[in-house]
Amino acid sequence: MLWSAPSQYGFLSILLPALLPIKSAWNAFYVFQAIALFGAAALFYRTLNRCLGMSSVLALVLVIASFFLADPALIGPSSFPSSSAMRFVWCYALLAIGAARFLGERPSMRSFVRRATLPWVLGVLWSAESALYVTATLFTPVAVHGLIVLMSGTNLKRVLSDTAALVLYPLVWLGAVLVVIALVYAIGLGHLPDISMYFQYAVAYAAGFGALPLVRDGPIWVFALILIAGVISLALGLKRTFTIEGPAGAAIVAMGCIWSVTSYYVGRAVPTNVIALLPVLCFALAIIVRSGVRMGAVSRLQTAVSIPFFGLVFASAFWQPDLPAVLARLRPYPQDQVAVLPQADAELEQLLSTAGVSPRSHVTYYGYAASMPTTGGARPESFERTWINGPPQLLEEPISAERRALVFGRFAERRHEGGYFVQKRGEAEDRVEDWLRLIETSYRVRATFSSDHYRVILFEPDAQRH
To answer: Are 261 and 277 in contact (CB under 8 A)?
Structure first.
């Protein structure tokens, strides 16, 4: 990673499940997602119950409704890693810390920053998107705190000094971790990490790749109304007590989080992305409401937003005719993910046998599925030993041809062994030839096996080119 293996969804979010002592990468990622989902749900429940004063029954129902029953088709936060706690787990951690620090005894900005530093560092290393979310969530209250203290009449030099100390504390810890990572790369791999690979997908999507137009009468108003209600409540609260080292601080943490995760919806404005964010929105809005109550500053708009919002969450989860069918599709942990993967058809099974391809072979699959089908029939086996690092599609649009050639060249320099390139005919034919030409700059074709719908090419290192 950060050199010859593309990673669309981040660094730690991919590295940590890969380190789990589980044979199948599919099962390892399944377990890791389950851990992240349970951790986020537990933080949500504990904060609702202990910090916000919600009854244990109501808190549990809200967590279940927003996490697990948010959509009748189960395409919400619990099903897909790209839209689940895997993406937003550190937002939940910072929201929980913000509520605990600012709604608890002896609230202080210094205490919040110190407690939030570890999850912030982990969130920054998690993915480029996560880095945006956690940075806005952590530093928005720090910035507002400095402004409030300055408006209270404190000397500018003192304000700048205190604010700089708050900002530098997490930055120093992040810097130390980055130095350690750089040393690991330099000593273990002989080069420093390519930091641009950490940002390349986020930059491409931020530039508009895959974006859908934002409609004015769409769900964007959910985010806007929650933020506006929070701002009004905060303004009313600050009139009473002009400090954010208290309930106001918790509200600002929540609003910073909502403001940053709104970018996830704006980047691709589809309703399912609101469902993906539903637990985060519920968590943040609950903190804003509780903060308003503690400040004695619950506005009419806040009430008008909160009641229908939480009512809709409960109604969409429990007041639907398909609820029994939804619950019937749920399966207890653990489940063998290899058993539910797409299986090779008889034609592909025969071709793989002819070509000498087994689950222990190094294989790259090229087709719309982006992953090699399992083989073995009733007792399926997955192909865990990839050849080219990651699905080739990860180095296609929006990644440029020059960048693709650079990353593949790094892979070829390190991987002096051949492998199989399995292609599903008729899928992305316009791009597969570009890949074959690129592969042939470092490897040569040893054998080709074809059928009506598949092609298997065995590549071996080209000694003259390595």
So the answer is: yes
Sign of CA dihedral 85, 112, 109, 130: negative
For the chain, residues with pLDDT lower than 50 are none
Sheet containing strand 363-366, strands side by side: 363-366, 419-424, 454-461, 443-450
Strands 443-450 and 454-461 come out as antiparallel
Q: Which residues contact 431 (CB under 8 A, 6 or more apart)?
A: 396
Among residues 19, 45, 38, which one has the least CA distance to residue 86? 38
Residue 46 CA, chain-centre distance (Å), reads: 22
pLDDT for the residue 379 = 87
pLDDT at res. 167: 95
Model pLDDT, residue 414: 84
Q: Find out whether 408 and 437 touch, Cβ atoms under 8 Å.
A: no
pTM as predicted: 0.91
- pLDDT the model gives residue 77: 67
Distance, in Å, from the CA atom of 32 to the CA atom of 107, rounded to the nearest integer, reads 33
371 and 422 Cβ atoms separated by less than 8 Å:
no
Identify the pLDDT of residue 409.
87
Name the residue among 165, 102, 94 with its Cα closest to residue 130: 94
**CA proximity to 419, closest of 459, 390, 383, 447:** 459
Residues written for the chain: 466
pLDDT one-digit tens code per residue, 357-389: 999 999 999 988 888 999 988 889 999 888 988
What is the distance between the alpha carbons of residues 320 and 299, in angstroms, rounded to a whole number? 32
Confidence at residue 78, expressed as pLDDT on a 0 to 100 scale? 66
Strands 363-366 and 443-450: unpaired
- Specify which residues 367 forms β-bridges with: none
